[in-house]
């Protein structure tokens, strides 16, 4: 079932639009009426239009290359071309070359656009509707705006580290220029966790969104899943376990029996929690991930346009050998018109092999959160509390679905965590989760050094701050070490 909520980019949805700027934080300090400020948001319908405009930014945040670089290509799962030079320089070349510099700028700017739009909606609701807590629809809109703000900050801190904390819109250029980078701990404590706690209480459950024709809005389970991840990042596994148990108990979601049925345009299915909704005819935006094929495969199978942004590493291919999810996830080549196999690792989760020659995009949604994620983070929360048997039982739910041998519960806590990360890597390969998984479990340096066969400076676990932001505010915005 395709989404019932088409995010149409009209004036009412674009009222808080910014163009790409080199110094986004300073540019954000403009008169609110330029962005359709509080006077515009004089009804719940217009408030919801503003919330929909926040969701629209996900199109660009997840567009190539952006988060594919940030979460896939600097892990052991992905590479830009999988050559020895490219993989070996994972923490060097990719953080300074042109494509990645663009991705860095884009992630920063789009994340702050989401934050700024969310701030405006929050202020509009609080100012224009002081009794909004008694209105379920307005409380939901507030919950969705705060969910998206937290989502943007979660993206920023896991890529850049310390970032400016912007919870109210700056009114003057001077205020914007006074912004400084706040410690990651402050961003968690003042923004991400309280925003997600509010969203978890006020976003609607999926079934209610469907009933009201709002499928595509962030459901309560999305807020609870993100909140659980935030708790795990902050060593609060008991609270993560509790909130994830609520999602399981809701009965709103289930694993699809067939892993391969998750892909190929089977959007908003029983396992899906939160997706980027694409519908070219309604929104003018289509999913261009289908072009994630290496240049070696251009012209094969009707693919005339390829963009070699991300390919699976040989290390991941080897790890997935014998796994039933292999061909639904990736492959090592394609047969050409002469039935000759052309070798080149490529992702299959996003590739539409039915679109025909010359097509470069489709309407498949990008699934950002699914029920398997709930089971896995629940397992992580349990393992981190030394509830190994319970954790392995939840890990084994996705292994059972894949008809893979189940993991034993008779392992140590450290062994259980390694097995969990192994299964999570296979289940979610290419879905932009690996990097945060390694950061959250403090395994990044260990895993990447083993993958590369060399040591890496810990400073390069963070991306460089965009130069334009530093130049606009050199006293408050400083560069990360090593750049």
Give a structural overview.
The protein is mainly α. The protein has 3 domains: 13-203 and 462-472, Serine Threonine Protein Phosphatase 5, Tetratricopeptide repeat (Alpha Horseshoe); 289-347, no CATH class; 373-456, no CATH class. It has 20 helices and 8 strands. The chain has helices at residues 24-27, 44-61, 66-73, 84-88, 98-128, 136-160, 173-177, 184-202, 206-211, 220-233, 237-250, 280-283, 314-320, 326-329, 371-384, 388-401, 413-427, 434-440, 444-452, 467-472; strands spanning 78-79, 163-164, 181-182, 272-276, 311-312, 330-335, 341-347, 366-370. The strands form 4 sheets. The chain has a two-stranded antiparallel sheet with strand order 1-5. The chain has a two-stranded antiparallel sheet with strand order 2-3. A two-stranded antiparallel sheet has the order 4-8. A hairpin with a 5-residue loop joins strand 6 (330-335) and strand 7 (341-347). Helix 11 packs antiparallel against helix 15. The chain is globular. The N and C termini lie far apart (46 Å). 51% of the residues are buried. The model is unreliable at 1-21, 29-35 and 87-97 (pLDDT under 50).
